[in-house]
Amino acid sequence: MIRRSFVAAAIALFASIIPAAAESTLKAVMNIELQVLDPQVTTATVTRTLGYLVYDTLISMDSEGGYHPQMQESWQVSPDRMTWTFTLRPGLAWHDGGGSDLRAFQD
């Protein structure tokens, strides 16, 4: 977590000293080459970092391990914990253009 905070502070500092006329593209260099691009099939930190830069998440985790809605307005869990219902924030849609509600079923 300290390393992530340092990187965020360094980026904020760097962004504050860039002249207004400069390019608006941030270029980042990973410390190792990517072997796998899909963050769901690997535990590699570099892939997870790329995933956070490219993809958004339904739920985010704070530095103390607590969960918070990110893309969603709310979520509900059925009493038997077999059905989870997620409601997206206004203005968001699923990649297939579906509505703002998603029900996930656990086998």
Overall radius of gyration: 18 Å
Number of strand segments: 5
How many domains make up the coordinates?
Answer: 2
Strand content: 15-25%
What level of helicity do the residues show? 10-25%
Biggest pleated sheet: 3 strands, antiparallel
Q: Any low-confidence stretches, pLDDT <50, length ≥5?
A: none
SS class: alpha+beta
Q: Quote the average pLDDT.
A: 75
Shape: extended
- Helix count, DSSP H or I runs of 4 or more residues: 2
Largest sheet strand order? 3-4-5
Can you describe what's shown?
By secondary structure, this protein is α+β, with helices and mostly antiparallel strands. It folds into two domains: 1-55, no CATH class; 68-107, no CATH class. 24% of the residues lie in helices and 21% in strands. It contains two helices and five strands. The chain has helices at residues 2-17, 45-54, and strands at 59-61, 67-69, 72-77, 83-88, 101-105. The strands form two sheets. It has a three-stranded antiparallel β-sheet, with no helix packed on it. A two-stranded antiparallel sheet has the order 1-2. A hairpin with a 5-residue loop joins strand 3 (72-77) and strand 4. The longest helix is centred in the first third of the chain and has 16 residues, at 2-17. The radius of gyration is 18 Å and the shape is extended. The mean pLDDT is 75.
